[in-house]
Amino acid sequence: MIFHVDMDAFFASCEEAINPSLREKPLVVGGNKDDKRGIVACPNYLARKKGVRTAMPLSRALQLVPEANFIRSTRGLYSDYSKKVREIMLEFTPMIQPVSVDEAFLDVTGVLHMHNDDHMLLAQRIQDAIHTRLDITCSIGIATCKVCAKIASDINKPNGITYVPFGKEKEYLSILPVEKIPGVGKKTYERLKKYGIVRIGDLLKFDKSFYDNEIGIHSSYLLNVANGIGSDNVRDDQDSRKSLSKENTFYEDTNDLKFLDSELYYLMERCCEKLRVKDIKAKCITVKVKYADFTVNQKSLTTGRLSNLESEFYEDALKLLRKLINNRKKIRLLGVKFSELVEGDDSVQENMFTDIDKSESLMKKIDKIRKKYDYGIVKFGRTFDL
Question: How far apart (Å, rounded) are the C-alpha atoms in residues 186 and 312?
């Protein structure tokens, strides 16, 4: 029994909770009316009714709702509320897997007996606790797997509870628009629509080979969703802190930037190869150095994306390395670590079928070649000593 708890218009709701007068008219969080180059971080539901959407340019939002309140994000507010929501969830079940600052999966299988074995009652109690204590609302999807629960949580927003009938997941999902599948964005929808795929059930018109050839590498994921199949493995916070790292101690201490940049990319290649083998993606990159005097320093960056491609993280890693360079100290060890890891279906992002898929497919083929012959059989320019 899986719940997907998704906070409603989270940033806007937090701002309204500390300033209730903002609820009186449309609210756009992201910048004030003079920040015309900015983008919308979160509109409240009054603004959404007027067509305002997340990531829309503020200038466009201003055209749609000139009467709205436009405010910049309040530093630290959303993470503070996210922690409070997490604390409330922990009162109901210890099995919580945060997905982002405003959503999480809960495995409530083992605690239903405390709520009359009534999943709707438990969902209502979670909603009530969050609303009563924090003055914000959430929507909850209920299903036997995570992807179905996530789809359900989006159906009756805001402040809704939706469950996918147990044992009838395939039938329930079949009539829903295919865009409801996490990862199917506008570009993907247009590609599917060309083949008459507009509802989730339409995906079953074709077999896996069709999707492999015509759509991309996520064919198994699409077919699993159409059949109401998905992971039910909810990993708690301790699991989500796992990481994958690699480091190298040099024969000679060095401050040669070209060498360090090349070594950095090589270490990332080895880590990302393992991530791809395990079907895992990461959000956070850490660069670590040990100086010649054996002191250690490291810098981390959490990105807004999930990836297992070294090319996706390299520019960020270079910036971290530059912050660690000390002209007075040579470096004897360099390391990288990937953390905030997400497995399988959970790593599917909003726009699934993009050039990133082509890069992933290419890297998987290169991984196979390296495994069959030798790792050094394929090299990228960044790792050559020039």
Answer: 22
